[in-house]
# Entry
Amino acid sequence: MLSNKRVRVRFAPSPTGGLHLGGVRTVLFNYLFARKNGGDFILRIEDTDQNRYVDGAEQYIADCLKWCGLNPDESPEKGGPFAPYRQSERKENYRQYAEQLVRDGYAYYAFDTTEELEAQRQQTPNFRYGHGNREGLRNSLNLPDSEVQELLSQNVPHVIRIKMPANETVSFNDMIRGIVSFDTNLVDDKVLLKADGMPTYHLAVVVDDYLMKISHAFRGEEWLPSAPVHILLWDYLGWKADMPEWVHLPLILKPDGNGKLSKRDGDRLGFPVYAMNWKDPKTGDVTKGFREMGYLPEAFINMLALLGWNDGTEQEIFTLDELIEKFSIERVSKAGAKFDFEKAKWFSHEYIMRADSKEVKTTILQILSDKGISVADDDFLVNVISLVKDRLTFLQDFWEQASFFFEQPKEYDLNAVKPKWNDDKTAFFREYISSLNGHGNSAPELEAAFKDLAQAKNIKVGELMLPLRVMLVGGKFGPGVFEIAALLGKEESISRIELALSAFTS
Ligand code: GLU
# Structure
């Protein structure tokens, strides 16, 4: 049940690299939920971990959202009533809350140096800073007050850690999973504020969800183990009444269902896992994206919506508006969703078939220009797209399926033609060429003339169609052969038939 709080949801990525399709699905579910409930969708950049920060990743995330058409109402770029939306620019906000937790006995200063902690790790396998050992470590729980004050006034590097209670159960309601419980003994004393004064993710996410009045927190299931820390922080900071509803989304699994789908699986199995091409600024390596593969954004959204959600019917094709209307958290499944690339291809094909040829023209022009081809005749291009689009799985297949419209075949599938070639056929095609100017150039007219001539010459049409195709296209593929001839025009068709005749008869 929705409370009467205004719906405000956020996508809160850390800018550490390319955007995995699971991330885009989180964006999508946030977006659908916000739109459905007349709420706000916020993009907040969680960039407090300087070590993981990657140049260009924030812009990339913003571009992905734009490409998908899932535009936030508030974001670093757009601003909004709770700006700034980049955590690194909110640094001043966090320390006071960490200090408040220390004052109230829920957190403590820890002065252990990196070397000391390293030594502990060497000594104790699976060392975890927590209730079992914190008494023996260098922190404000053990050191005398005066020493703590002294260390603080000398600015001795320190962190603030949450004091996880021992032997307690932290429970909360997740809108997908129901009641989820954690044993606090299994959770370590996470750092909340780092020595550089920056908050860790745990503190920042809670403080900002509170300050930005987030009503529902959607995020991937991989964040579930962090939830007990967050729940306790909401409680310890005195904000429990304002805590968002939790919505941990199911994982997107490898095609065989064995574990979470990773970028490496994509590389291994030959499909993209990122929304758009991502170029690692350090290595220069490019990871392939759905966009560059020629996937339409509407298809991408539709495919993602069904990874872990369905509307309870067999319907698979949904517009964004339909998704907004039909989306409900109750119908998001608990179980992980297997990523099926064959299904992803099916969505792509369906959307390209349904796409308005004019709308995909820009992408097609780019594909052609990459091949060094510029097309001046807009109508011709739109007609070609309309003719071949139901043969494309991805827009990138356009060149393979339609290159012959833009250049003459470089070679012919002679095996398909030569064994049955004879002088009668040569004569037929010569006559066909000279008859072409005597009638119209529409596909039905061309077909009728072709068939009439075949009949007059007493040659089976079936034996002539394939050669005609090979003459115009180079091989045994493509849409209807008279449609192709009509689009190429008489002059070009004649020239191709002549060229091919010399190849067939040599
Ligand atoms: N900054 C976290 C991430 O990188 C966000 C997790 C959350 O939404 O709480 O995904």
Remarks:
- Residues 209 and 244 are 8 Å apart (CA to CA).
- DSSP finds 20 helices and 13 strands in the chain.
